[in-house]
Design a protein that fits this description.
The protein is of the alpha/beta class. Helix content is 50%, strand content 13%. It has helices spanning 2-15, 34-46, 63-77, 95-113, 125-137, 142-145, 164-173, 190-204, 208-215, 218-244, 261-275, 283-294; strands at 26-29, 51-56, 82-85, 118-120, 151-152, 155-156, 245-248, 251-255, 299-301, 304-308, 319-324. It has a 6-stranded mixed sheet. The longest helix is centred in the C-terminal third of the chain and has 27 residues, at 218-244.
Length: 330
């Protein structure tokens, strides 16, 4: 079975485990959909280490409790330890984004408490393609277009080379009843609209080339290449930070002279996070900040004041001063 060989090869590469000695313990994020149930079944069948599973019930849908219970029953039948996780506070605001943040926070906490070496999710090739198209439409750079990473810290995604149709077949062959999230049909979400557009394109089948484009593994290969480029850029930016960033108490000076734009952006982000570790500005916010600083305009981003230093020496230096703004007086 080609899935067995490919999955085992992926797990070896992602975890570093080559079959010798004790295998790492892997926690599985299982929602009850065909993707994650296929991951559960494949890991149980072909992985010779310890696995456990968790399902997150965000409390956003009435059906979620039954879906979590459905996963619990399947895990019990396979002698797999399973937990149902709930966020401590209600999800509000940007529902999809906040739910994702809560889900990963809950899963990471659960994995740590259960001594898991890795946390595996069931993202697949179709997810990857949808994400790339969405990010192209948002004007993403290298980092964004690297898209869904096969490994990000202790999070691994061993199914990225498989299509959803492959995973549905795994469930059907194993007689695993799966659940489809009704939100997958809600056109309010960008991902759903992209998914439906792709389904239409693939059904039209204008040419063999078009069909190959959306069914080959080349999209995943491109994402991997972009991920490698992202790693290289970030590695060199972090080394460059030693030369271009000067920290004095709670003030950071950034020397941005004669640097390519991408390095300026990355060094600026490194400096911002040194002052405020939780800051996560979007690409457009960073672009606006750089434009302001280059035009000698003082700017604020979150609680950080960014000031271009006046150049009175007639040289080519471009120094920006970053500091936490004093608390506002009430």
């Amino acid at each position: 079975m080609h899935i067995q060989a490919e999955l085992q090869s992926k797990l070896c590469r992602l975890t570093g485990y080559n079959g010798q000695g004790k295998a790492p313990k892997i926690g599985l994020a299982v929602s009850g959909g065909p993707d994650s149930l296929a991951l559960l079944w494949l890991m149980k069948k072909y992985y010779n280490g310890t696995i456990c599973a968790a399902t997150v019930d965000h409390g956003l849908r009435i059906e979620a409790r039954q879906e979590a219970a459905h996963v619990a029953v399947i895990c019990a039948s396979q002698n797999i330890t399973h937990n149902i996780l709930h966020p401590e506070t209600a999800i509000s605001g940007n529902i999809q984004s906040k739910a994702r943040e809560a889900r990963y926070a809950l899963l990471q906490k659960w994995a740590l408490e259960n001594d898991c070496d890795f946390l595996a999710t069931a993202h697949h090739a179709d997810d990857q393609l949808e994400t790339i198209i969405m990010r192209l439409n948002r004007g993403s750079g290298v980092s964004g277009l690297a898209s869904i990473r096969e490994r990000n810290g202790n999070i691994i995604r061993p199914l990225l080379s498989f299509h959803k149709s492959d995973l549905i077949k795994v469930c059907e062959d194993a007689d695993l009843p799966y659940i489809e999230d009704p939100s997958n049909d809600e056109d309010d979400y960008d991902r759903v609209r992209v998914r439906k557009w792709l389904a239409h394109i693939n059904n039209v089948r204008v040419s063999n080339e078009l069909e190959t484009l959306f069914h080959s593994k080349m999209v995943q290969k491109s994402a991997q290449n972009l991920a490698h480029a992202e790693q290289a850029l970030q590695y060199s930016a972090e080394n460059l930070a030693d030369l271009r960033l000067t920290k004095r108490d709670n003030i950071i000076l950034l020397d941005a002279a004669d640097l390519p734009y991408e390095y300026i952006r990355r060094l600026l982000l490194i400096a911002l996070r040194q002052l405020s570790p939780d800051i996560s500005p979007r690409g457009e916010a960073m672009d606006n900040l750089i434009t302001s600083l280059k035009s000698n305009t003082i700017s604020m981003i979150a609680d950080i004041k960014c000031t271009p230093q006046n150049n009175n020496n007639g040289d080519s230096k471009l120094i920006w001063r970053l500091e936490l703004a004093p608390p506002r007086r009430h």
